[in-house]
């Protein structure tokens, strides 16, 4: 058996293999991923700033979460002494019984209506204003502080 001699490697030892890292394919993949994400990404604004005008309530203002909105009591005047009280109760049908009915509903008399609850008198078309004023006076005699008429032309309290 004859042994051949390998050519000399110029002073390097033959036991160590030289490892080279080829970066070209890795750089190509990075550039392809960069192009993919640039083309596939939408640059629309995802979040927007909305102008919000919040009233300044100051530091001393406290909100009661259990406070109810004030709903007015509407008394419709039908004429000839007849009335109808809107709401979740069986109200009187004649003006004479309105004062006692409203007094019994006041909060200081065991009812649910505070004294400042608005009472709106709504005379139906063709009703004499004298009858509407009688209903107004009955609500005032019951002790309510905010009594007024509903304007038939605009639907507002006056």
How confident overall, as mean pLDDT?
81
Largest sheet: 4 strands, mixed
Q: Which parts are unreliable, with pLDDT below 50 for 5 consecutive residues or more?
A: none
The count of β-strands is 4
The level 1 CATH classification of the domain at 73-149 is Alpha Beta
Secondary structure tally, helices:
3
How far apart lie the N and C ends? 127 Å
Rounded Rg: 44 Å
Structural class: alpha/beta
Structure description:
24% of the residues lie in helices and 13% in strands. It has three helices and four strands; from the N terminus they run αββαβαβ. The chain has helices at residues 24-40, 98-105, 129-141, and strands at 73-79, 82-85, 118-123, 146-149. It is rod-shaped, with a radius of gyration of 44 Å. The N and C termini lie far apart (127 Å). The model has no long low-confidence stretch (mean pLDDT 81).
Question: TL;DR of this structure?
Answer:
With 158 residues, this protein is α/β, with parallel strands linked by helices.
What is the fold's blueprint, element by element?
Layout: H1 24-40, E1 73-79, E2 82-85, H2 98-105, E3 118-123, H3 129-141, E4 146-149
Parallel strand pairs: 1-3, 3-4
Antiparallel strand pairs: 1-2
